[in-house]
Model the fold of this input.
Amino acid sequence: MNRGEVFLVHLSPRSGSEQKGTRPAVLISHNVFNQSPSWRSLIVVPVSTSQAQARRGPTAVFIPAGVAGLTRDSVALCHQVTTIDRSKVTRPLGSLPPPYLRQLEAGLKVAMALP
Done:
């Protein structure tokens, strides 16, 4: 597992406005953690196909269909970053090309008010 890869994950149970269900998510945690089998937690950014989510501004990063194994135009929801257990990962879909990963990193910076 590597940073920038997109996986199908189970995001249930959740509550309120948190993204839930089985959906793609981009792995963003450091590869030191991702590649250590004893480290059970992974940090991911959920992906949605919702047009309403796409209008959320710079924290919603557009990823077109065909990129990273996604079959529909999608948005990575940087304002919904979350930690999951490895057991919630079902299968790999693909990897974000570097330009999309940089856009996602910029969205994370906005969402967390990082310089």
Remarks:
- The CA atoms of residues 78 and 105 lie 8 Å apart.
- The two ends are 27 Å apart (CA to CA).
